What we know:
The protein has helices spanning 16-26, 38-48, 64-74, 87-97, 109-131, 139-142, and strands spanning 8-12, 31-35, 52-55, 80-84, 101-104.
Amino acid sequence: xxxxxxxxxxxxxxxxxxxxxxxxxxxxxxxxxxxxxxxxxxxxxxxxxxxxxxxxxxxxxxxxxxxxxxxxxxxxxxxxxxxxxxxxxxxxxxxxxxxxxxxxxxxxxxxxxxxxxxxxxxxxxxxxxxxxxxxxxxxxxxxxxxxxxxxxxx
Length: 154
């Protein structure tokens, strides 16, 4: 992520009204994409690689707990924040699945934005540190990197 780019957030929520409220809250500070179930969330995560995922838990096709586990199999560094009305019943299970934090519904705009910023900025800094190639010792090695720091293996 470049310094002038806004962090990307994937909102996973099956309730359209709740999704639009969250999207509206985040739109000024983040680039937002949405998914309406866990299956779609996994697919969009792999395509889009967001900095943070806001994951509802009870959804059709694939619930948020299983979607969290699947995303973390592909990317162990993924930052997934559970957003649920069932925090008292499911908090332990979603944290064990790998979520970094749980936000209980209802929530305040300040809580949501503050939590997302905390993980989005932390993830962006780690990504910048690990993807920066700095000085490369040989021209043959430099050919394996594109201008975005992506490594190519031949």
